Amino acid sequence: MNVKNILNGIALCMLLMALCPCACKNKDGESSSSGAQILMGFSQIGAESAWRKRNTQSVLEAAEQNGIQLIFDDAEQKQANQLKAIRSFIVYRVDVIAFVPIVEDGWDNVLREAKEAHIPVLIVDRKIKTSDESLYAGYIGEDSIEEGRKAARFLLQKYEDVRGPLNIMEITGTVHSSVARERSAGFREVLNGYPKFSIVYSESADFLRSRGQEVTEQIIQFNGALKIGSKPVHIIFSHNDAMTLGLLDALNHHNINAGTDVTIVSIDAEQKAINALKDGRINCEIECNPELGPELMRLVKTIANRNTIPKFTYIKEQAFTETDDLSAIGIRKY
User: Fold this and answer.
1) Distance, CA of 173 to CA of 24 (rounded, Å)
2) Could you give the C-alpha distances from 235 to 4, 81, 200, in angstroms and in order?
3) What is the pLDDT of residues 14-31, one digit of tens each?
4) Count of CB atoms situated within 10 Å of the CB of 103
5) Staple 207 to which of 130, 173, 228, 264, CB 3.0 to 4.6 Å?
6) Rounded to an integer, what distance in angstroms lies between the CA atom of residue 240 and that of residue 181?
């Protein structure tokens, strides 16, 4: 049985429990206003990477540990599926809706429907653009702008004594997603004052390993080497580890030594990427922490009881570089 079927099975069981009048109660998941167990609808964008799968599992585990009943939906990378799921949560009269928005725009109408139904909404992992900030209670996830800044600061330190020019190839995430836009913005914010760094190419690989490999292969084959036109690429900044692992496959295929011939900076800190960092094939890993389930459930219980929460809650993250004591990094769950 695959992961999607397992998750959908869990979701169905939880839904049946939620709708059953004899469903058991758990004091940690109770709503003080009604005494009933909290019912939460959660829409995830998909299962495109080890990071995303662990992010989903963190939410499922934390919901169970906190006695919160969960209706889970996998949108399979389609906004239309998410809109449908959120509307189904409204019909089920859940206490709280949480979702990971695949893109920033296009949510106002469905969020108004949730507001009219008096169901608070939490935005998870990626942010949205809205004409009315009151349509959602709060955001929980990574600080994507700071992740981009950390990547750039590593380059400033690594190349402090190098005059340049230093040409950067950027592989970005899903177009119109907040995380791709903000990582790019934070990265550029730090490097803008240093003209020796130049971003000579930027292409979306949609956070997918296959696309990370494809984009890199196309560049090498078109130019006959890892370069953009006549400009050699010295640095690759990749927005997530899935794409990075794909581009490492492409570099290896063309006998280009990642980590030495070209500096690799990536975001997520998945176990496979940490292994590549230890092997010297990645130079810097910026952690994007998927373990937000416990904090998400704390926020869910707070707003289910009609209390306010901060508009933005950021998860603690760190950076790992080639100069660190990498033996101290424990085994990761993703």
Assistant:
1) 42
2) 36, 37, 10
3) 444 444 333 333 334 554
4) 18
5) 173
6) 13
